[in-house]
Amino acid sequence: MPMPSSSSLLSAIRRLLASLALSPPPAAAAAMPPSSPEPEEEGMGRSDAGGGGGGEGGGGGGGRALSYGEAEYWDARYVEEGGAPYDWYQRYAALRPFVRRFAPPESRVLMIGCGSALMSEDMVDDGYTEIMNIDISSVVIEIMRKKHFNIPQLQYMQMDARDMSIFSDESFDCAIDKGTLDSLMCGVGAPLSAAQMVLEVERLLKPGGIFMLITYGDPSVRVPHLNQSGCNWKIVLYILPRPGFKGKTKRSVLDPVPMTESGVLQDGFVPEDPDSHYIYVCKKLQGSTGTSSPTIHHVDTQDTAE
Fold this sequence. Notes:
The protein is an alpha/beta fold.
């Protein structure tokens, strides 16, 4: 796909924002991203980009390359896509059994990296009453505000998930992320970015609150970030085949996947779908465990209550 110049990109951004009655943001010397956001093409597959230097989105017009952790990349992407709805990884219908099990409809939900996904809208249709949607892209936030201006259950705010200081401590019952942490792990300074985001989520959740992380990262590359110093989670792992998987599965998706005491998959465990999504249901506990003592559990009776 030809890469537009920074001047043509700026013109496109101005046209889109003019239709939304906004002032244009600073110019972004960014390449236009692929038009079909498949996770594999984004460098957001099962292998972890923890080195911090990969996962760049490319550069156009002689400008520097932008990574997936930068607002300019996503602003450019949403301009090119025109705000067309797209749900990364999984739609709400597939995630509903997990969301309903661990976060009742009266929960105050934080949707991290909402993008143009339909998930929050679908959750409102399913009875959820308060969802705060945040995204690093001011372009997509204004698109979604305009689209859902008449749905009071949905709120939108432009924000970097690594710094959510505008919110007070322990102000949410549930936080959901499908793809944002993976995106940060493909960007510059990945380990620090991941640590900042997880710590912010932990700060914002009420005791007993749920962080639901949907990711391509297996426990060997995600549990260390979840169980960093300052966090204390009760973690239950599930595995969900990707949409469209045609193979047969031997276990129910609602069966927890056992992990070792050190927070990795047990020897010999192989998902039927090699491109499965890992769902970490992390319940906030009191105190701090630190990186050396991950808190790995199966669900208990209270956890499984509908």
